[in-house]
Each structure stands twice: as structure tokens, then as C-alpha cells.
Amino acid sequence: MEGHQLKKSTLFVLLLTVLVSGVSQGLLMPVISIIFEKQGISSTISGLHSAGFYIGILIASPFVEMFIRRFGFKKVILIGLTITNISILLFMVFQSVNVWFFLRLFIGIGANMFALASQTWVTSTVGQKQRGLIISIYGLCFGLGFAIGPYATNLIDYNEKLPFLFLASLSISIFIVVLFLENHSSIQNDEQVNFRLYDFLNRFKLVLKYAWIALLFPFAYGVLESVINVNLPTQVLRSNFDIKLISIIVSVFALGSILFQIPLGFWSDRYGRRRLLLVATSIGGLSFLVATIFFHNIYLLISMLFLAGMFVGSIYSLGIAYMIDLIPKSLIPMGTVLSGILFSFGSILGPIVGGVLLQVFSSFNVLWIFIVLLICLSIVLSTGSKKEI
């Protein structure tokens, strides 16, 4: 699809869309975790409850590729935003924990639709020489939103409904902006793509064959992001930190990723994504180790989370760019879908494991999850197959 170039105005709107997506995820998860903790709901239940969002992503993922190809990017984004907007507004109507689980599930479905449509629109229209940089800018916008989101948790002090009203206002605003975009007809390919189960599974298998190493990074980022948003606020409260520090501790990782998204994307274009990913996972693992050892030193903890965010906060966008380097262009939509699925698996698994460990071992630090995960990724990058197509 080299012949089609993404308009700057369209790119700007897509970046705004992912910014709002970042704010939504950065705010919704810690807000609900704080509300549950105040209500005396266990960390295990809180972790299981957070899985609703990612179950929604898993439900939507197998269909997003088909919807994008058949209806175009814009329509899929608008449908996803509509589902998200309605679900957020219903948080202010119902107070049931069970109802909230299903609302999180529907938000996951809607968010996955508009996020994957936006991401595929961007990744399928940029050349390889600029791919790392452009995808890093895309990741930067998500990280910026993800960092802004937790600061709105302070709205709970005034009214528990205010964070949801804030999110609904943002989502409705971006919906109106997207209405003015042209509806691009979707991915153009050199080959006819159909949607029979056999062909779907065959594309699925080919992406795994060529890019399994790259796909580990969306999974790992899912674990990191969800544990930071769901389990870390609980641990901070139990460590007797001021509740106002939660927004700083949760968002500082994202702030670090904002600072280094673009430089890492540029360096990955120049020096190779595999090499940059190995450096990022190594430095990130070491930073989390220091943060774990000095967890009760608030200044050192914040500094190490910031440093970890500078390197590990980019592994999702670098992983996506690395995956696209490894697969044929016709497989990009399926690769994007698989990235979303693995991100969801990581996001579901992370808070459940973190919640159970916090429940069973009172002295457990959730940052150990990150340390073990990043060590494993570093080993795989160092020893895995380096074959590319």
C-alpha cells in the first residue's frame, strides 16, 4: 500500500483518538480499583473484575479485521466509540459490581474496535523507513493519555460519578471530530482476502510463524499496563502512602514512556528494532529491581518507575513495528488483531496473578512480576531465531 499516503489531518485525528483511548484506560482502571478498595472488595475480586475489559477485547478481536475490510476504518471507529460512550454513561446509572463487569466488557469491545481500526489505518499507510517513528508517535499519544488519566482520579474526592462524566465528555467529543473524516475503503492488497474460517486460521498461523517473537511484546505490555493500573494502586494504599500519591505513582511510568517514545522509535529505524528491544527490556528489568528493593523510599520509587517507563513503556509500539517488519503487507490486519489478542491475554492474566499474590502473600511486591517477565523477554531476544522475511 505504498501508493496511499495518510493525510496529515487524518493522522492528527487518529492520534487524538488514541490519546482519548489512553486517558480512558489510564483513568477507568485505577478509579474502579480505588472505589472497590474503599468498599472493602478484595484485591482478588478487583483483579478478576478488571478482566472484563480485556475479555471484551478478546471477543471483538476475531471480527475487527473483517469489519475493517468490509466497512472501512471510519465506520469501525465510530461504532466502537458509540459502544464505549454508552457504556461509560451507564456507570453513572448502575452501582452493581456485576453490572459494572459487563459495562467494562462492552467498553473493551468498543475500545478494541476503534483502537485497532485507528492503529491499522496508521500502520498500513506508512513506509518501513518511517514506521518506527510514526508508530512511536502513535504510542506517545496513547502514553500521554495514559499518563493524564490517573490524575483525574482526584475527581472521586468530589463525586464518584465525576470521573465517568469526564470520560464520557471526552469520548463524545472525539466521536464528533471523527465524523468529519473521509471513510477510507480499508486495506488494499495484492491478493483477494476472504473470511472463511480456514483462511482466517491460515493467516493467523502465518503471522505466528513469521513474527512470534515480536508478538511477545504486546502480551508483556498488557501485563505491565494492567498490573500498574489495577494492582499497584491497591499495594500503594496498603503501604500507607497518601492516596494522592497514587495518581503520581501510577502515571509516572507513562510519563517516562512519553519522554522516550519518539527517540526509541527513531533509533529502532536506524539501529534495528530487535537490538533496541533487548536494551529496553534489560534496563527496564534493572529499574524495577531497584524500585522493588527501595519501594518505601518514595523518591527513589518514583525515579525508578520513571526510568522503567522510558524504556519499557515503548515495547508495545516497538513490538508492533517489529512485527510489521517480519510479515507480508497482506497480513498486517491479522497481525494487528493478534497483537490485540495477546495484549488482552496479558492484561487479563496480569491483574489476576497480581491480585492473588497480594491476597496470599501480604509482603509480596507486584513489581516482581515485571522483573521476571522482562528477564524472560531478554533471554528470548538473545537466543531466539533471528530469521526475518
Q: Secondary-structure blueprint of this entry?
A:
Blueprint: H1 8-38, H2 43-71, H3 73-90, H4 97-123, H5 128-148, H6 162-178, H7 197-238, H8 245-271, H9 273-293, H10 298-312, H11 315-326, H12 332-360, H13 367-383
Helix pairs in contact: 1-2, 1-4, 1-5, 1-6, 1-7, 2-3, 2-4, 2-7, 2-12, 3-4, 3-6, 4-12, 5-8, 5-11, 7-8, 7-11, 7-12, 7-13, 8-9, 8-10, 9-10, 9-11, 9-13
Overview of the structural elements:
The protein is globular. It has one domain: Growth Hormone, Chain: A. The model is unreliable at 189-193 (pLDDT under 50). The protein has 389 residues and is mainly α. It has 13 helices and no strands. Helix 3 runs antiparallel to helix 4 (97-123), helix 3 (73-90) packs antiparallel against helix 6 and helix 5 runs antiparallel to helix 11.
Key structural traits:
389 residues, Growth Hormone, Chain: A, 13 helices, globular
Could you give a short description of this structure?
Helix content is 79%, strand content 0%.
From the alpha-carbon coordinates, what is the Rg to the nearest angstrom? 20 Å
Q: Which overall shape is indicated by the principal axes computed on the Cα atoms? A: globular
Strand fraction: under 5%
Mean pLDDT comes to 82
What CATH calls the topology is Growth Hormone, Chain: A
